[in-house]
Each structure stands twice: as structure tokens, then as C-alpha cells.
Amino acid sequence: MRRRPRLPARLPLDPYVLALLATVGVAALFPATGAGATVADGAATAAVALLFFLYGARLSTREALDGLRHWRLHLTVLACTFVLFPLLGLAARFLVPGLLTQPLYGGLLFLCLVPSTIQSSIAFTSIARGNVPAAICAGSFSSLAGILLTPLLAAALLGNDAGGFSLDSLLKIVLQLLLPFLLGQGLRRWVGGFLTRNKKVLGYVDRGSILLVVYAAFSAGMAAGVWHQVSLPRLGALMAVEAVLLAVMLLATWYGAARLGFGRADRVAIQFAGSKKSLAAGLPMASVLFGPQASLAVLPLMLFHQMQLMVCAVLARRRAQDPEAALQEHLDDQSDDQLDARRVVEVSPGVQPPAAQGR
To answer: Going by C-beta distance under 8 Å and a sequence separation of 6 or more, which residues neighbour residue 194?
Structure first.
């Protein structure tokens, strides 16, 4: 009898989300004003440029290109991230003003345009015994595409909320996002080793930079009075809409990948890479695209990030209990045993493999 998979003892509450919420609280109580606001905005601009420089310097385009042989899977994930998600976001337009205010809807639509994650997609794919190399490549492709596609889609679909196609907004995108990213890629061969050796320390730099961006954005939002537009019922409605959005994407990626003929391991990678949204990439992009409205624009993304972690932690453990996963693990173990036996024969010609010894 197959045992019913149990829920994890503790659902993952991302400590970084707690740090983000604490930063929001500090910005609400002690917003930067006057000269302090100018300093905070300048520091946030520099932090965004630094973040995208580090993204470019870390991202191995060679590894991403090596994964091109699995192009159908990567195109499927990209289509989920930058086609299906935005279409669902546009379809949610009818919820305004009944359930969502226009600013909250703008944030929800922006959430749908953000690239996929890398780390959590890989982690959940590994737990569920899926195709981990495919998840790595899919996340890398999504991050690369998002540098260009997310700002362009935001400008096209959000209109004035994200600055439109004005020369000023285009210049911001190029100077604060694209140029630092390309510079990081260009210098990767010289700084890549240093970044790898100091990965842990630079991780704190990443997160500290994003906290600074969030503080500047929410300070500007407090000064502009945007938080008067949010009420608890609206916030509850937003969370309900996001729960439906996540459920639809999880179902679409799993069953859609099956219809396209992908095997179980690939379906796992598609599901976890195609249903995720990156908080680390979305927060700095929003600060560039939305200005004073960025605080409301990133609220749906922050909520969705925690929701996807909690739901996918449960789902990954259920996927790990699939009969197909157990069978695949058994076949992999057999393959490893046969490989070990062949190595023994090669090293010691007088020793027969286990199958021959039993004859």
C-alpha cells in the first residue's frame, strides 16, 4: 500500500521576506525625506546598477548555450514565463475595480512579466527528482531574456504606469539595467573567479542592495501617499487572486508539458521553472520602471514569492513520492551498479562482473 505523503513539518518562511517586511516597516515609520530622500534615491540607483553588474558577471552564458540541445524544454519554460503568465495577467483586468484597485492590478501584471527564478527552481526540481540540469539552463535562459523582455513588456502593457515608451524610461532601462549587465558579462572572465570564491559575502551584498532599493521605494511611496489606496479587504482579494494564478500555472505547466510529450523528469523541471517569479530580479526592475509607485508595484511580487515557496515545498515532496520517480531512481541505481562493475573489470581483468559470476 502506497503511503500518503505527509506535509513538511514546517512550511518554509523565507527569512529574507521577513527582512523585506521589516524594511517596509522602517520606511513607514522613518521615511527618507528632503536631502535624505535624494541620498536614498542615489544609493538605490547605484545599488540597482551593482545588482545587474553582478548578475551579468555570475551568469555563465557558456553553460546556458550548452543546454540548447534541450531547446524544446527551454522554449516551453520561456513561453510560460513571458507569454502565458502575461496573458493571465491581462485577463485579470476585469477584476478592476471590483476586487483590485488599478495600482494593485498594475503590480499584479508586473508580477506576470518578471523572469523565473534560478535557485528555488533548481532546489524544488532536485527534491522532486526531476531534470536538474534542465532547470539550471531554463532559469539561466529566463534570467537572460528577462533583462530585455521584462522592461519592454512592462512599457508596452502597463503604459503610463511604467513610464511608457518615452526616451527617459528607455534611457533608464539601458543605463541602470542593460549596460551594467553587459559590462558584467564582458568582465566575467576576469572577475568570475573572485565572485565564485566570495559567493557567500556577495550574497549579502545582493540582499543588502535590494533592501536599500525597497527602503527607497517605500519611502517615496509614503511621501506620495500611495498606501492610502490599500485596505485589508483589497489585500485579501489580492492574495486570493494570486493563489488562483499560482494554481493555474502549476496545473498548466504540469499537464501542458505532458500534452507536449515531455517525460516525467522534464515535466518536473518545466513545472517548477515555469511557475516561478524572481523577487531578486523584479524588485530592482520595479524601482527603475515605476518610480514613486514602485512600493505598490512590488507588493504583489513579494506576496507571490512567499506563496510559491510554501506551495512548491509541499508539491515537490509529493512529486518525490510518484511511482515514476521511484522507478527512475531504481533504474539509475542499477545503471550505477553496472557502471561500477565495468570499471572493476577494466581495472582488474581477472575479475568477472556480478552477472558472469553467477553463471
So the answer is: none
* Nearest C-alpha neighbor of 294 from the set 207, 216, 208: 216
For the record, the C-alpha cell of 111 comes out as 508580477
Q: What angle do CA 275, 276, 282 make, to 5 degrees?
A: 140
246, 301 in Cβ contact below 8 A?
no
CA–CA dist 353, 359 (Å, integer): 11
As a whole number of angstroms, the distance between CA 43 and CA 176 comes to: 12
**CA distance to 86, 93, 298, per residue, from 103 (Å):** 17, 12, 10
Residue by residue, pLDDT tens for the chain (359 residues) are: 444 445 454 555 667 778 878 888 888 888 888 888 888 888 888 888 888 888 778 766 666 565 567 889 999 999 999 999 999 999 999 999 889 988 889 999 999 999 998 878 888 898 898 988 888 888 878 888 888 899 889 888 886 665 544 556 667 777 777 788 889 888 888 888 888 888 788 878 888 887 888 888 778 777 766 666 678 888 899 999 999 999 999 999 999 999 999 999 999 999 999 999 988 888 888 888 887 677 778 889 988 988 898 898 889 888 888 776 555 554 444 444 444 445 444 544 554 544 444 44
User: Which string of b and e fits 21-30 if b means at least 16 CB within 10 Å?
Assistant: eebbeebeee
- The Cα diameter of the chain in Å comes to 87
Instruction: Indicate if the alpha-carbon torsion angle 94, 100, 105, 108 is positive or negative.
Output: negative
Name the DSSP class of 275: S
CA distance 304 to 298: 10
Nearest CA to 139 among 81, 85, 178, 184? Answer: 81
Q: How many CB atoms lie within 10 A of CB 148?
A: 13
Residue type, 333: D
3-state class of 51 per DSSP?
Answer: helix
